[in-house]
Specification:
434 Repressor (Amino-terminal Domain), alpha+beta, Umud Fragment, subunit A, 9-stranded mixed sheet, 25% strand
């Protein structure tokens, strides 16, 4: 039985133009509250000022990656974008926030020691499931896990859980310097007693990787899935 628990985050349904106007207004209100210029936000998010200004005015469609970066620049809860008013929700006692990262960011963070104290630079999402303090959300950037998961889905991963066969895991390949979401399969041990495992994609276009052939490390176990609010085709 998989330890992975699937949970769909149901977004606000709005026409695309109206939705981007709502997001732009949220960014503008937050930026003005922080007394930041559009140029400062753009620089922190790694985008041009004109791109950010158009997005703030509702004249541009932002990709998921861009919206995450802007939320980080504005120190804004990413889930605030999912509410009809743009107001941050009051969290219940059993809710907690976890940092939200891309796979590339997750790899760099893990290689630097995976210190949660250093994760406050990332935008966050709120969850209400049992998890350790060493839990993060990771946004899928490819179609390697389709049809089970799609590009843009967020997988909440707990670094303090040990994997079991069939689990969805966050793993790293130090040869390619990359993190990935895969299905974990235990293959037993080798002659030296070292554990051997496979990392299996759902999409057969991607290869299955073995730990006795590649420098693979399982970092965390997936405990929740959330669908994106924005169509990943715009990424």
């Amino acid at each position: 039985m998989s330890m992975f628990m699937e949970k769909t985050f149901i977004p606000l349904v709005l026409p695309q133009a109206m939705f981007m106007f709502e997001i732009g207004n949220i960014f503008k209100v937050r930026r003005e509250k922080l007394r930041m210029s559009a140029q400062q936000v753009a620089d922190l998010a790694g985008i041009s000022r004109s791109y950010y200004t158009k997005l703030e005015n509702g004249d541009n469609d932002g990709t998921l990656k861009t919206l995450v970066a802007i939320c980080g620049a504005l120190r804004l809860d990413f889930e605030t974008l999912f509410t009809s008013t743009g107001n941050a929700r009051i969290l219940e006692d059993d809710m907690r926030r976890v940092p939200l990262m891309t796979l590339a960011q997750a790899y760099a963070w893990i290689q630097s020691g995976a210190e949660i104290r250093g994760a406050d630079m990332y935008p966050s999402i709120s969850i209400n499931i049992d998890c350790s303090p060493r839990t993060i959300g990771v946004v899928l950037s490819d179609d390697s896990m389709e049809p089970q998961f799609s590009k843009g889905d967020t997988i909440v991963c707990d670094l303090n859980i040990n994997p079991r066969p069939g689990c969805v895991v966050l793993a790293t390949n130090t040869e390619t310097q990359a993190s990935m979401i895969r299905i974990y399969a235990d293959l037993g041990t080798d002659e030296a007693g070292e554990k051997i495992f496979e990392l299996r994609p759902r999409n057969s276009f991607y290869p299955t990787l073995r730990s006795d052939r590649k420098p693979l490390f399982v970092t965390a176990v997936g405990i929740e899935r959330r669908e994106p609010l924005i169509d990943p085709m715009v990424m």
